[in-house]
Amino acid sequence: MPSPESSQYKSYFDQLIEAVGNGSMVWEDANPTTFVWESKPPAAKLSIQRLERTQAIGVVKRIVTYLFQAYEVRSGQQVQRVSLNGAEDPDLNGQLENLFGAIKSEISRKRLEFLKSILPPMKNG
Amino acid sequence: MPHPFCSNRRKRGPPSVVKLRVLHLPRLRVGAYTCFCVRQSTYMTTDTQSLIDQVLEQLQRPFWQHADFWIATAIGTAGLIFSILAFVEARRAKRAATAAGRTVKLQTVTIELTEIAQKLDKMQPEIRFNEARDLLAEVSRRLRRATSPFAKDSELSTAIAVTREALQAAQASLKAVRPTDPSKEVEAPRAVYYAIEDNFATINNSVADLLGLFEKETIDFGDDDAES
């Protein structure tokens, strides 16, 4: 059963995923596991980060969680307003995983488009 | 044939009857033989015969009935016992010296681990990628240097293996947040800290476990091996 927090944010994340898919939100990768989106003019910033930790209880287990954060930008200063950690809520973590996957796919698609755009024209025959 | 050592020859002429006795002295190996040239029943006095009998009696007694045999045996046995005791004590002293040396090394490692733990405790959330990389490199190097002599120790090997796995996990998590563009690292504030926080905590816990084990090891000062 989904937790109240994940239900509350589910529709928001669905809208984010849709916005990523239709290109209205262009995310950038700050590092291989962190994606950032800034509103224009910059008044807010969103970031999602994939975290991986190793748990060694009996057997070594790798646990992947996601961290979603929202910042308000005031005169160049970033003030954190929202922080959602998937490690605390498995349902929320699933939604964040979907969002992260959608952003990653979109970034990969754009990279591929760029690579294709710089190819010389192919000679037919 | 007259015997050359017979003193009676000059006085009484060559002995008409020569009796040669060869006395074997097997244990002492002295005097391969002794001879007595006597004119039987003429020159041998009762005292001489008695003395000879006593000598023969002494010589024919088994060696274990001689007091000197038991004295030598007692001295030899005592020497052997003291030699064994000296060997045992020397071996104990060697073990105690080895244990003392190990204790000194363990205390040095304990100090090193305490410094590492304090360094990990001071990690700030605003840590940058290059700072985290330097910190991890230093912690990794010092930890491995301190624990590698004990990697095969039955009491410590498991904790050391866990620590090494934690170091590898931290390196992987740090690699995952290498900035795409170093000038834009601030765009994802605290991303480095969030990425390495858990794995650094695991390292810190492993270091604490190791500290406890090393401190436990230093409690044994080799008392079992040495006597005061």
What does this structure look like?
The complex is a heterodimer of chains A (125) and B (228). Chain A has 125 residues and is of the alpha+beta class. Chain A has one domain. Chain A contains two helices and five strands. A five-stranded antiparallel β-sheet of chain A has the order 1-2-3-4-5, with helices on one face. In chain A, helix 1 runs parallel beside helix 2. The longest helix of chain A has 28 residues. The relative contact order of chain A is 0.17. The mean pLDDT of chain A is 86. Chain B has 228 residues and is mainly α. Chain B has two domains: 54 residues, no CATH class; 124 residues, Four Helix Bundle (Hemerythrin (Met), subunit A), CATH 1.20.120. Chain B contains six helices and no strands. In chain B, helix 3 packs antiparallel against helix 4, helix 4 runs antiparallel to helix 5 and helix 5 runs antiparallel to helix 6. The longest helix of chain B is centred in the middle third of the chain and has 55 residues. Chain B is rod-shaped and about 130 Å long. Chain B starts with 7 loop residues before the first helix and ends in a 9-residue tail after the last helix. Classes of the chains: A alpha+beta (125), B mainly alpha (228). Chains A and B meet through strand 1, strand 2, strand 3 and strand 4 of A and helix 5 and helix 6 of B.
Structure characteristics:
heterodimer, A: 125 residues, alpha+beta, 38% helix, B: 228 residues, mainly alpha, Four Helix Bundle (Hemerythrin (Met), subunit A), 2 domains, 6 helices, 0% strand
What's a quick, concise take on this entry?
The complex is a heterodimer of chains A (125) and B (228). By secondary structure, chain A is of the alpha+beta class. Chain A has 2 helices and 5 strands.
